[in-house]
Amino acid sequence: MQSPEQLRLRLNDTLSAIAGKIATVSGGRRPISEQDTKGTLIEPVLAALGWDLADLEVVRREYKHNKKDLPVDYAFFASGRPIMFLEAKAIGLPIDDHKWMAQIVNYANSAGVEICVLTNGRDYRIFNTHAKVPLQEKTVGQCSIGQTVPEEAADMLECLTMAALQEQRIIRRWEQEQLENSVRAAIQELIQSRDKKYVNLLAASLKGQVGMQHLMDILSRAKVEVSFASGITAKSTRSGTKLHSKPRTPIRKPVAGAVTLGDLIEVGLISTPFQIFTTFKKQQVVATINRDGTVSLGKQTYNSLSVAAGYARNSISGLPSDGRPYYQTNGWLWWSCQYKGQTVLMDVLRQDYLSRTVQGTRSKLEVMSS
After folding, report:
1. Which positions ≥6 away from 294 have C-beta within 8 Å?
2. Between 140 and which of 128, 184, 198, 306 could a Cys-Cys bridge form, CB atoms 3.0 to 4.6 Å apart?
3. Overall average pLDDT of the 337-348 stretch
């Protein structure tokens, strides 16, 4: 059995090789088939994750949970029960197709399998089938080999090892992100709504430096982005969520949650006005990212993708039943855009920005150490 360190080294080497293959295939004139995608791009990653593809006790191809079911490309087992399904598509096909997502999620859910994956060999999208949220929000992780920061792609895919699945590692990671999104949205709403209790508390802390009306005016123009330090994971228990700190690494990676639309605009990933869109409950929703990093949706303007997504859902589904002003939504995974000639999630641009940031940091460190 491989040690965690050995597995990570093998996975890193495999992802590097796969990225090279993808670049070669993408530049070719003839697209490769789904079967070739499985053999050349997907199965090497599965093997690097420790899955023995020759052992029918742990991996079954063209698996049917019931005789009348359509087969799933791969089913992964632990202690005799399926713990993950994976459906493959040919490279070049978009994995955000609603029909394909619904197919694998519904199949996994009916089989009692909590985690399922949809991939085209380059892009991986991981779903929590048991999450009681709309289909688009069942995504608990995604990455794109060759586009996502390599370390983050490896971190994400490592959640698909047998040990990680049994520990529900990716579910805990997703629960933490959901918790952070809720806290972020609550803080933003608190400031944007200029709640009287909050304003009074803020005025008291300023000790008379500014009058109440002036303070209200300042808050009306406030643009708030809330981010969280990396290195915190959520360990889910039946009674709640406990937070545990991981050891700090010498060089900290940029935090995905800290990226703003202003960052994307500043480095030229977005040229404003920039159109974003999605399809929700069969309705097309279109919004615009403005020069100042705000998002215009209809006649309203919002300070972030997530808030705009929440209010967009309000317009279609009505107000949330839990009394919140809008639905808590990860805007990076909700909105899509046109990027490099393809329709991609906004998260692809965020990952591209992070990749550039990591490379820039490394270059500076190399200069400093030379």
Report:
1. 223, 261, 301, 302, 303
2. 128
3. 89
